[in-house]
């Protein structure tokens, strides 16, 4: 190992690659990066070096590069087996403040390239939870389907850098640039995370990109394969449109944020309008695909035990930023509330995202949206109430009709959200109803079968 005079910090890991002892500055860096002491290593560079030393019984040494939310660190690290774990010695620890992405030309160029070649793109919330997923790589299709089914969950629940045993989401700077293996894909993929929001990066969420380290091994068009397996306008058109529309949005966002260089304000605003229009088009594509799905005679849901109050809290967490932009307060069920029901989690979440999203859209700025749950006998209910203009009797009779927008224009809606939501509710043996009066807001109620634990009869 290095001579004692050059060592600036020491540490020790156990058989599970958990950091159990550490000196400063290693301990502080580990904690700032989202780790715990004792707790699993969270920095990929350390994880790889420690694991190899422990598994192969070798003394390894190299220069590593790592970063947390404020510093980029370069250090000489030596690791050797010690008992069932390993000992760490660090020399020549050099830390410097991170450069802003917008100030780094190389980073700008790299991001533009990543957006072009990415095989999977996702929009994440501030806690790295999935909000939307788009994919045009054949070997990532299965991963994308699982992610879409887990909207609201952390993306690292589906794919994470090797050796990540950390329970809570790692700091985004540690995940940015990591390499991952995806089940079903013969290629390795690089992770790119783009923080959104100022002044704190990531405060309003992230963009996630998976870009390949090798070329696409599938020469046959993905669209052709999908056409062989499925038929229908929505399912045939969706794969064709998603890729170009997603790239239009990505390029517009690059222009809007001036990542490629300074730009006059009016052109930046034009780019913002293009990105918004593209997002609305993607939403319409998704609606058409879902519409075709729910109108299929063979469509079925996967019922399971869910907690309506928990699903409501997840929906509020996902839409919290959108509500905050308009100064709207979302009054969600309390953490102690629990209303067991029978339904498919992702479909119930889809319905609630639509109801809460509509409530935010139609409530006045500075208003409030209430989400309440209750159970009565064999039924469980959740109600979303807003402070909007409300609906008269004629509007209430039309609100669940296909393509019905009740005279609204310019809000990007397709008129399909409530129609699809009601069809999903009915597919889960439930109902979706509305109560309203002009000038008194609207109250939409989703009702599902209640879940009751069976009690064991005494012998």
Please describe what this structure looks like:
Helix content is 35%, strand content 26%. The chain is an alpha+beta fold and 459 residues long. The strands form 4 sheets. A 6-stranded antiparallel β-sheet has the order 3-2-1-6-5-4, with helices on one face. Strands 8-7-11-10-9 form a 5-stranded antiparallel β-sheet, sandwiched between helices. Strand 10 and strand 11 (205-212) form a beta hairpin. Helix 6 (222-229) runs antiparallel to helix 7 (233-256), helix 7 runs antiparallel to helix 8 and helix 9 (308-325) runs parallel beside helix 10.
Short summary:
Helices cover 35% and strands 26% of the residues. It has 459 residues and is an alpha+beta fold.
